Every structure is written in structure tokens, then in C-alpha cells.
């Protein structure tokens, strides 16, 4: 377990010209508001400690104290470009028993924690078959839900010093940012830390609303206790990171497209998701009846789907979930190509008009899902191998691994990471122990992964 040495608040440095949104309220979109009753994003990077003085000028002959001070300073400068992360959520309760939420860019600051775990080495994280539970202690704000951003930081960073490395774990309020925005911030922080004076991709901070939707978005008063206790199921689960090489992924894609002779449009990621779906269902003891339904919730990005498209630098939530549903027997009998094609058709059907219609309908009857309701009898994806994870160099070298925290974990959670080699993908799979163990005994599954 990590032992906290100190906690402090880091405010923006104020060195750069700020956006017009500073000191103003940023209204939350329906995509943002829908995430108030779930947990934040928790992702982190594992680094080796610099060993040679000539390795990097930035950290040559410096103490850990100097390095930590440097990270705090560079974080402060990065917050100049990302004012929402230094603010808090605001809430307004209306007389009609509705509430509206917004981001108050008030520069209260992000939380910065320095912790130590001298008895834990990098190998203790990388070598075990299953992700050690102590990794969760490398992340701040465990057990916090997004609606608590009214009083809790919207960004919290924990730098944990290990025996021979550092782990930088970051927690970002999911009502403020999605995975794309999370890694946009992380990439920008590494640029500033590595010596850049400005970031290469300034964020686009204006929130997008369809023209015919009034804001602020109003939702009914909700019971803040709805999701309490959800994390108590976590000890029953295990997590393992499976590595898929570029060659194996290419093979899955070719197989899926070959099975569906009338298309070549199945992507590498769709083929991999279909392979995982079928493998997990095949190894799940709870699927007793062949006619039982199985669901796969796919995260779909909206930035390129709107007309005109949103900028890739759009800072906020631009993602939602759609579900592929079939019977367990059909999934297993039809094959990998069929399963991948169902995903392909679903994703292709999500046009700009479909997205706008969904938002208009939701605003008329707003419902805030809890994590438990979203994940019931379903596999669910998060993150993306397209995010730049291994390109983050804070001044002493690139990371050796990516890990996630305890937030939003469930039986059937699939977290996709960029792999360390070009074109490879790591998938962190969270399942009941008996399902994971059955997969490890499944020859068809194990033939594709690289141990």
C-alpha cells in the first residue's frame, strides 16, 4: 500500500493568456450530466527511476524532492490551458425540484499527492499474473462519485515513489472529461514537464449543445446515496492485463472479414472485441441457458460523427454507449465474423442525426444511470488503444506500463490500452475469478494472447 507523505492543492500558474471561459460557468451537456452518478476516470503510468546522470538533463543529479517540485510546477503551468480541471462543479436547485450542474472555473486548484511505497518494486506490478490490489492505492479519490465534484477536486494526481520507479496516477471527474480529454490533458502535462513552454494541442473548451436544446440542462433531484456501496463488490473480482500483438490482431481482423465474405469493413478493434466477447461467454459458468441474452456495450465517440464534426481537442464528454444484444447460443454458433459484423453495423448506424435525436429525447425525459444499472448482464468497454499513453515523457523516459484504478470496475469490464509496441493492444479484463481462470484454460483464447 502507498503511504501518503503530503497533499497540497495546485492552482494554475497564470503565465499564459487564458480562455474567455475563465472565472465563468461552463454548462454541462447531456453527455456530461448522464455521468453524475458513476465514478471518475482513473488511469496511471508506471515509470522506471532514472539511473544515469546523463540520461536526461532535466533530472540529472536531482533528488526526489526536486523531481516532485518539478511535477507540481509543471502541473500548475498545464492547468493554465485546462481551467476546468482547477475548478469545481456548481449546482443550482430550482423551485420545480430540478437541478442544474455547471463547471465553475474558479481556480480553487487540483489536488496533488506525493506518496511512497518503498517495499514495492516495478517488478511487483509487472510480473504477477493478476493486477495486484495495491495498485488501486496509487490513485486518489477512491470511492468518490462525479456529483461530489461540488466539493471534491475535479482533478487529483498522486505521484507514488516505488523502490525503483514512480507511478503517476490521475483521477479526473468523468462529468468534466472523457477518455480522449483525459489523455489530452496527460499528454499536455508531459509536454510541459519535458520542457515545452506551450502545449502542441490547446483544448477547445466551449461545450457543444444542439441548437434546439435549452441550457442549462435540468435533471430531477436525485438521491445521492443511489450508488453507495457499489465498490463493495470489487474484492470478488480479479483483473488481468492480456497482451495482443499487431500480428495476432491482424489475424483476428482477417478471419472476421473472411467469415463475412461480403465485407472488408470490420476493423481490428471490432474483431478483437468480438473475439473477447465470444471467449468470455464461452468461459462464463453463469450462462446456463443457451437462449439467455448477452449484451456488449460499445463506447462510441461523437466528435467525428457530428456535422460539422467537433474538434478532436474538444474538452468534455464526447462519448456514449450503445448495446449489441444476442442470445448466448447464437453468439457462439455464428462465429467471430458474425459477432464483429453486429458491432460494425451498430457503430455505423450512429450518425449525427441519430445523436441529435437521442439528446433531444433524453432532455425531455432525463434519467441518470448508475454504474450498476449500466453493467448488469453485460460486458462494457472503456478507454481506447488509440489514446497516446506510451508517448508521455515527463523528463526521465517513457512509461513501461499503463494501469487503471478501482473506479467503475465490474464483472465484465474491458479496458483497452495502447500496447508498448506499435500496433499492439493491451486489454485489462475484470471478471469473476472463476471466469478468468476458465479463460486461462481455454486453448482458443490463449493461442491469441502473448504472455
**How many DSSP H or I helices?**
12
Name of the CATH superfamily of the largest domain: Chloramphenicol acetyltransferase-like domain
Order of helices and strands: EEHEHEEEHEEHEEHHEEHHHHEEEEHH
Catalogue the unreliable spans: 227-233
Largest sheet: 6 strands, mixed
Distance between the termini: 26 Å
How are the strands of the biggest sheet laid out side by side?
1-6-7-8-3-14
Query: Would you tell me the structural class of the helices and strands?
Result: alpha+beta
| Residue share in helix | 25-40%
Task: Supply the number of structural domains.
Answer: 2
Mean pLDDT: 90
Number of E-type strands? 16
CATH architecture of the largest domain: 2-Layer Sandwich
CATH C-level category of the largest domain: Alpha Beta
Approximately how much beta-strand content do the residues carry?
A: 15-25%
Instruction: Briefly note the CATH topology name of the largest domain.
Output: Chloramphenicol Acetyltransferase
**What is the overall shape?**
globular
Gyration radius from CA atoms, angstroms: 22 Å
